[in-house]
Amino acid sequence: MSVSLNMNGVNQLSKGNVIYQKDEPLSSICLVLKGRVLVQADGVKTVFSSGNFLGACDIEFGAHSFTYTAYDDVVLYAFSVSSREDFQNILDKKPEYRGLLNTSTNYFIGELSRTLTKLEDECKSLREFVLAQYDFYQKTGTASGVLVDNISSVDILRKRKVGDISLCKEIDYYLACTKLPVVAQKNYYMGSKYISDVHYKQQIDCVFSLMVGCRTYADQLRRCFGILVGDEKNLFSSFSRMAMDMAHVGADNKSALLAVDELLAKINQAETYLTEKAGLDIHLDRERMESTY
């Protein structure tokens, strides 16, 4: 539940307060004056500091695309905004806000781009691990004469390509802008209403293009994690049963036991990344895992 903000005035919020909730109707935006704010959605988890606008990227859509939470005790200025025209009036009265807006959006594009690259790398790595472990599981179980599971979600994963994402062509331009001194960016944007507006519209397209990419990779990572341990039929449970079945038939199950340990380590690593870096809410039944182990 988000806090109630004092409109067109300064707000002091404690660490942990939710400023805006994802999918909540947009009726205001904020400028961070002091402190840091956690910005989170599926695939995205980053921090904004002073000089950044919260919610400015969402005005065109009428709802917040991210959850904004006070990362520290923060000081914010809240603007009553529900349309592009409302925000335009504010920018017309305070040209310096144009510089802040475009510069902070450039920063966000840079953060999202780095997040996307990392998500792609993690997705490819986890996918390769899952496929390799499944192939080893099938071969080991069959060679030992024990019954193995056919995990259909692995077959689906094998047929799908990683990513297949189409990004805005202007992203590279705005990434180049982030390499310019902040003062130079601010002075450039605040110098012309026309330039600021054109850039802002393109920046919003870039932000949402990157968001869709991050969400796509996040969904693929979630599916891989489900195959590892979350789904009804998963590699951790299947390997564990196979190791016990191999022992029952007198087969050497050392390689299967080592694989279970390797899976456990990968599950822990993946859970940490998904929750701490990718902003995903992962439900892992640790008690069941320990019992199986």
Describe the 3D structure.
With 293 residues, the protein is of the alpha+beta class. The protein contains nine helices and eight strands. The protein has helices at residues 84-93, 95-144, 152-159, 171-177, 182-190, 193-230, 235-248, 254-276, 286-292, and strands at 9-13, 18-20, 28-34, 37-41, 44-48, 53-54, 67-70, 74-80. The strands form two sheets. It has a four-stranded antiparallel sheet. A hairpin with a 2-residue loop joins strand 4 and strand 5. Helix 7 packs antiparallel against helix 8 (254-276). The model has no long low-confidence stretch (mean pLDDT 93).
Comma- or semicolon-separated keywords:
293 residues, alpha+beta, four-stranded antiparallel beta sheet, elongated
Architecture blueprint of SSEs:
Layout: E1 9-13, E2 18-20, E3 28-34, E4 37-41, E5 44-48, E6 53-54, E7 67-70, E8 74-80, H1 84-93, H2 95-144, H3 152-159, H4 171-177, H5 182-190, H6 193-230, H7 235-248, H8 254-276, H9 286-292
Antiparallel strand pairs: 1-8, 2-7, 3-6, 3-8, 4-5, 4-7
Largest sheet descriptor: 4 strands, antiparallel
Structural class: alpha+beta
Number of strands: 8
Number of H/I helices: 9
Assembly state: single chain
Give the uncertain stretches in residue-range form: none
Q: How are the strands of the largest sheet arranged?
A: 1-8-3-6
- The H/E string reads EEEEEEEEHHHHHHHHH
Rounded average pLDDT: 93
First-last Cα distance: 38 Å
Radius of gyration: 24 Å
Global outline: elongated
Report strand %: 5-15%
In percent, how helical is the residue content? Answer: 55-70%
